[in-house]
Amino acid sequence: MFRTFGAEDATDLAALVARRDVTPDELLDAALQSVEELNPALNAVALVQEEAARRAIAAGLPAGPFTGVPFLLKDLGCEAVDFPAHNGSRLLANTRYAQDSAIFERMRATGVVTFGRTTSPEGGIGVATEAAVYGGPTRNPWNPDHTSGGSSGGSGAAVAAGIVAMAHGSDGGGSVRVPASCCGLFGFKPTRARLPDGPYSGEGWGGMAIDGFLTHSVRDTAAMLDACAGADLGAPYWAPPLVRSHADAISRPPQRLRVALCDTTLTGEPIHPEVRDAVLAAGALLESLGHVVEPMRPHADVARMMAAWTDIVACGTALGIRKALRGQPLAEGEVEGVSRGAIARAAQIPGERYLEAVGEIHAFGRQMARFFDPERGPDILLSATLAEPPAKVGRFSHDTEDYVAFRTGPEGVFAYSPFCAVFNASGQPAASLPLGMSAGGLPIGIHLATRFGEDELLIALCAEIERAAPWSHRRPAPLPLGPA
User: Fold this and answer.
1) For the CA atoms of 419, 361, 345, 354, what is the dihedral angle to 10 degrees?
2) From 100, 138, 354, 367, which residue has the greatest number of CB atoms within 10 Å?
3) Which ranges of 99-241 does DSSP label H, i.e. alpha helix?
4) Does residue 460 contact residue 246 with C-beta atoms inside 8 Å?
5) Which long-range contacts (CB under 8 A, 24 or more apart) does 476-481 make?
């Protein structure tokens, strides 16, 4: 896509369409050709709906910031009439929807040409995308032996490989930021309730889940967030209103900020040496830009929060499966091992424990808010996105039925990704920036977070860093083309 049209990001592609240097049909042709050539090696794109995309172009695309730009939806949520979904599960394969979700309507209004979906793990509860419904794992364009992350792993792989310039994702425990880190992309999790959830749900996972985007540039993400921001009709709660807009925020650098640098996990355990080096380099970069950087980490009960997160998501997973079964018993092979483990865990959780877990998440949010106290605390928390470079394919297989160990065990998801879910629980905005590379040539993401509601401050800082240390020139080597 980018080599063919000489573009750096989706904004560049939209400009080509606006100047009539290329048509939306020609961009769609190129994206479909890329799927044909690259998807056998990646297994990132599913459920291609070319006819729906052609109809949208023929009917006249909305005039928006991305008119004519090819686009993919994550195969989890983001309900759309023209785009059936597997939702990462054999049980839910080929699910169709009677109406479009609010988030899809807003994305469509930007003028994007949606033509399919991207792979995700079953239930969205993994940091690798290897769902059985797609016939194999989704692989990382930087090194196919490694995972592209999860749960928006297909979107991360498709964008990093250049099939599309940006794609939809969602994030309930790092599911945008983890693939951004693995694939060398920009991923931004907005403040809780910044984007709409309706009408299919009031909130995801007790308010911890939210939609987002995988992009090559801060400006692409800013434009998409502005187009999609705001509560939908009947939303149970709203995010604090933006002062101006994300796009306006990135046009000017923020004031000089107080940055807390954490080169361990948030509970003090060591992280991979190469990842730690990338964190320290990011701190030095911020100091060179005039920000005040000092070692610090929050004093919050991360372990208790993670246990509560695990119980809430077990209940959410069990509920989704029960609704899909419609009163029928679960048959052998309909869901994967981790999902069966989540059902078993949920059966052990009485209603009062579920409410207690939600309360623990809320209490944790207050602990994190105190850490960012405007009078005494830092403005930004700087850490790694993951505790190590991207994992090998198969390490986080969903075959196991020990759901709790899969999440919280010493070799589990939270040990690998100890930073991201913290900000799903607190609801605060957070981002992963592609600033580091391992000696083995794999991307290393740097994580930034700030106070609840201060999305504009965070994205302005991300844009300042992007200008100081551009990453758009860093792309994976071309993949082998054609059938695997």
Assistant:
1) -170
2) 138
3) 102-108, 153-161, 177-183, 218-228
4) no
5) 476/141, 476/142, 476/160, 476/161, 476/184, 479/38, 479/41, 479/42, 479/141, 479/144, 479/161, 480/41, 481/37, 481/38
Domains (range + CATH), the chain: 8-468 (3.90.1300.10)
384 pLDDT above the threshold of 70: yes
Handedness of CA 391, 189, 102, 215 (dihedral sign): negative
Confidence (pTM): 0.98
Tokens matching residue 296: 């610090």
Give the H/E segment covering residue 459: helix 455-468
- Mark out the alpha helices in 235-288 (DSSP H runs): 246-249, 273-288
Q: How far apart are CA 156 and CA 45, in angstroms?
A: 11
**Mean pLDDT computed over 34-38:** 97
Torsion of CA 12, 18, 19, 21, to 10 degrees: 70
CB atoms within 10 A of CB 212: 27
Which secondary structure element, helix H or strand E, spans residue 114, and what is its range? strand 113-118
Task: Please tell me the predicted confidence (pLDDT) of residue 202.
Answer: 86
Task: Provide mean pLDDT across the span 400-420.
Answer: 97
Are the beta carbons of 50 and 83 closer than 8 angstroms?
A: no
* DSSP β-bridge partners for residue 258: 292
Give CA–CA dist 432/449, Å, rounded.
Answer: 9
Average pLDDT rounded to a whole number, residues 307-313: 98
Q: Classify 387 in phi/psi space as left (phi over 0), alpha (psi -120 to 50) or beta.
A: alpha
- Crossing angle of helices 337-347 and 302-325, rounded to 10°: 100
Q: Which residues pair with 212 in a beta bridge?
A: 169
Residues forming beta bridges with residue 73, ordered by sequence position: 117
What DSSP string describes 284-311?
HHHHHTT-EEEE------HHHHHHHHHH
- Sheet with 258-261, edge to edge strand ranges: 45-46, 113-118, 70-74, 166-171, 210-215, 186-189, 430-437, 443-449, 380-384, 258-261, 292-295
Q: Is 324 exposed, middle or buried (0-12, 13-18, 19+ CB in 10 A)?
A: middle
- Integer Cα distance of 354 and 472 in angstroms: 44
Residue 138 reports pLDDT greater than 90:
yes
Q: Provide the pLDDT for residue 142.
A: 98
* Residues forming beta bridges with residue 447, ordered by sequence position: 383, 432
In angstroms, rounded to a whole number, what is the distance separating the alpha carbons of residues 90 and 316? 18
Residue linked to tokens 């209004």 = 109
* Catalytically active residues, by annotation: 74, 151, 175
Using DSSP's 3-state secondary structure scheme, residue 70 falls into strand
Other beta carbons within 10 Å of 76: 29
